[in-house]
Specification:
Shape: elongated
Strand order of the largest sheet: 2-11-14-13-12-15
CATH topology of the largest domain: Elongation Factor Tu (Ef-tu), domain 3
Largest sheet: 6 strands, antiparallel, barrel
Order of helices and strands: HEEEEEEHHEEEEEHEEEEEEEEEEE
Strand content: 35-45%
Structural class: alpha+beta
Distance between the termini: 86 Å
Length: 373
């Protein structure tokens, strides 16, 4: 009895020991561990630098040719030939079309004949007048006969002058049958085919020739920018850049040519014309382009990457790296040049590191770690 009772006590003690040991082991394994100290949010930073930043005025413009001429016939007749290919570049004075001139040449020959006849009559009348002036001295002719002959000569002089004018007019009409280009340019699509009858003064024309070089671009700028443009013009020539519709490709570089003389009251804008001397084929008539007028240049101002600028209710701001902390700085953003934006106040200083990536999850004073620059 005593032996079995001792055995039971020993078993109870062993079981309690196991329970206590298991409890201690459980709590030691599940004891909460302390959070390791944070090394900071990884960010990318770029140093503030100084550079010259151009100030541009952007506007949507339309390419206009220097001259656009509709080639029309100044005489009526059959279009005998068209001496150009559509889209061909032609020079001033180059023949582009011909009108059948046979009828006009026949009229010209007839007019020259009449002129020759009347010139002969005039010469004969002048000789008679010379004889009458000699005969009147000896009393062989009367004064009335002499006066009549003087009037006859004057009348014949007028007839010859009229005949000469008719000849010159027909010579001009014949010359109109050979149509030449009035400008250096490019011929558009043919509007009339050879063999058709064309009328003098027709507004349809035979073709349209546009002078492509130099090209001009007309665009409208807000009236508030007139002061800046006037100041730029006072300093010298004003550069204008023409970009494509997406503002990616520079098409041509030119200069400001003229400002309109009044403000459009409906839009509050002023029309501006720029000239591009060496545009080649980059600018096409009636093409839409993005015009950038260089109004000023900010000399040696602080610039930061545009990606670094955040926008808040109190304006624009950036995060500046100070040690291992992010410091929020309010700035006044200025003109943009490529991927950089000018800072117009003293919000940042040259050499300071501004955060460009990773700033969206930062607060003022957040711990940061610069992983790339």
């Amino acid at each position: 009895m005593k032996h079995s009772k001792g055995t039971r006590i020993l078993l109870v003690v062993v079981v309690l020991g196991l329970l206590v040991g298991g409890w201690v082991l459980y709590h030691s394994l599940n004891k909460p561990k302390g959070k390791p100290p944070s090394m900071g949010d990884p960010v990318t930073a770029v140093a503030v630098k100084l550079m010259d930043v151009p100030v541009y005025i952007d506007a949507l413009g339309t390419v206009t040719p220097t001259r656009s001429v509709t080639v029309v016939s100044q005489v009526s007749g059959i279009l005998s030939s068209v001496d150009f290919k559509e889209g061909q570049r032609v020079s001033k004075g180059q023949v582009v079309a011909r009108i059948d001139d046979r009828a006009l040449k026949a009229q010209l020959a007839q007019a020259k004949g009449v002129l020759a006849h009347d010139q002969a009559v005039l010469v004969n009348a002048q000789r008679d007048l010379a004889r009458f002036r000699e005969l009147i001295k000896v009393g062989s002719v009367s004064q009335q006969t002499l006066d009549t002959q003087v009037a006859t000569v004057q009348e014949q002089v007028g007839t010859v002058a009229a005949d000469d004018g008719a000849v010159q007019n027909l010579q001009v009409q014949v010359s109109y049958c050979t149509i030449t280009s009035p400008v250096d340019g490019v011929v558009g699509l043919r509007l009339v085919d050879p063999g058709n009858f064309v009328s003098a003064g027709s507004t349809t024309g035979i073709a349209v020739i546009t002078q492509m070089n130099p090209a001009t671009v007309v665009f409208a700028v807000p009236e508030d920018d007139l002061g800046a443009i006037d100041q730029a013009m006072a300093k010298g020539k004003v550069d204008v850049l023409a970009y494509d519709r997406n503002k990616h490709n520079l098409l041509a570089s030119g200069t400001l040519l003229a400002l309109d003389n009044q403000v459009d009251t409906t839009t509050g804008t002023v029309r501006v014309k720029a000239q591009f001397n060496d545009s080649g084929n980059a600018l096409f008539p009636n093409q839409f382009v993005n015009a950038r007028l260089k109004a000023d240049v900010l000399q040696q101002v602080s610039v930061v990457p545009t990606l670094a600028i955040q926008h808040g209710s109190k304006g624009d701001f950036v995060f500046v790296v100070q040690g291992n902390k992010a410091s929020l700085r309010n700035i006044k953003s200025g003109p943009v040049s490529g991927d950089l934006t000018a800072v117009l106040d003293n919000g940042v200083k040259v050499g300071e590191q501004v955060i460009t990536e990773g700033a969206d999850k930062l607060d003022n004073g957040s711990t940061v770690k610069v992983v790339s620059q």
